[in-house]
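I'd like us to work through together how a protein chain folds, taking it slowly. To get us started, please write out a protein record for me. Go ahead whenever you are ready, and we will take it from there:
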Amino acid sequence: MPSQLAWRRACLSLALAAAALQSYAAPSPLLDASHPVNWWFAFKFNAASFPGCGNSAQVNSCQFGGSPQSYASGKSFSQQYVYASSSQPSLSQGGGCVGDTPTDPVGATFSQIYNGALNYVVWNDQFYDDPAIPSCSGNACNAPWGHSKGVLAWDDQGNGVVMQVSTPSWPASGNAHYPRTSDGNTLGCVADNDVEVSQHFFSLKLSHADVLALLQGLANASAVTDPGNPQIVRNGGPSDIQAAVGQLGQQSASAMPQVSKLSSGVTLISKPSALQVPPWQLVSAELGGIPLRAATWWEASKSYAIPSTTQSGAPACWDSSLPAPGPVAIATSGSWAGQTFSLKGGLGKSFNHAKIGVSTGGGIPYAIFGDMNQEGALSGNCASAQNGRGGLFFALPNAALAQSIAKLIGGSTAASAR
């Protein structure tokens, strides 16, 4: 009977639609190709403390383009790492070469973007002319451009995943159809030896509203990208997201921080370049004036190295519209598995370029992942160094992770100013 046939066809259509929904997977942070999580964090060691790769692995696949570099054969690199995730929030050591395999968090998550069909934005103030950014002078983009690096990808419904990185010159292409023309696009396979010093990576699952908030934060921070270059931007999906992407690649005139509570409970803080205050004091202030401990590229010999502070209260370089910050301690060494490593900044295989921190009081245990070094000034030249640049911070409330990172960076501390 026609009515029965129509009923069967309707049932079949519903079954196919249900199957399609079940098979659809929104982009997510991945621990490996088949293990999505809500977030993960990875800390890559420096070459002096943990040289080479875990499990005696070699850097040779260069899965996102490039070729093994001479610094790798000379062992002046490290792709050993520790990581944690929403499924296991305490740090544990990973195997192989981080970023160079489909079975490590960085490699698996980036592969989902680079070898997929997602929309994306890649930003980095140190692309080194591949791609060239017309609005920047030289092969890197200095102040007042944001000191910020990462990749955001989203599907046609607006669901997304972000990976914040601290690595210059990586990533610098968002899709295999638009490879870099003069360099590689894989950790350990890039001309700049950004696997010699310590680095960090943080990935977070995002809702449509989260993607929009992040794009607005990137614009506020003057993040370096180019919406007209398909190597680093593929714009699509919901119209509000497309409009926000179109606002990127410009220097923001904003002098106000943007603070957003994401669906995951993570607090996103965007510092604009024109807000000329110490970066990690700003984070403390926006999290309720809590005390922090931070490990960044911090060179004691430089006049713009901001010392530790032991007292709450606004420094001279501050904006009266902001709440007062708490103390900020500068970590200068850490340890893992009995091995001590430096957390100071500088050139050479024993230094740190990650920008991570933890709360050390205030009730809520935060793990914090940032773009910015604690360089600038508490008083005097308030536009100095990173005071005069923009960047993002992700503050994740998680006691186990915060405790684990606190132990990782819990060595010596820079002398205090007050």
Q: What stands out?
A: The chain has seven helices and 17 strands. Residues 39-408 form one domain. The chain has one domain: 39-408.
